[in-house]
Fold this protein.
Amino acid sequence: QVQLAESGGGLVQPGGSLRLSCAASVSTLRSIFMTYGLGWYRQTPGKQRELVGSIQSGGSPNLVDSAKGRINISIDKAKSTVYLQMDDLKPGNTAVYYCNRLGRHLPWGQGTRVTVSS
């Protein structure tokens, strides 16, 4: 049973923007925000997943230093979706992006691939 589904990735030129989506059932999101919140992660070949940022229900996003100013995380409760907005993308942002509950992770989704290239 898929609990988290990422989408919205693609090929974008440097300087472009993408909005990634993390869709989940209402009950799944509720359980996530009753605990530690939801994080967005990225993974490149040969490396472990690393946290990009996170958000708690009703709170401001917490972003890693390298992402501040170019990335934002928001929640649309009506759509049961959490977004990762990325602006001014650089080739170094190329990765597969995942969302998951912080702390005790749920099964990982398939992720969504972002490729930044001219």
In short: Strands lie at 4-7, 10-12, 18-24, 38-43, 50-55, 62-63, 71-76, 81-86, 95-101, 112-116.
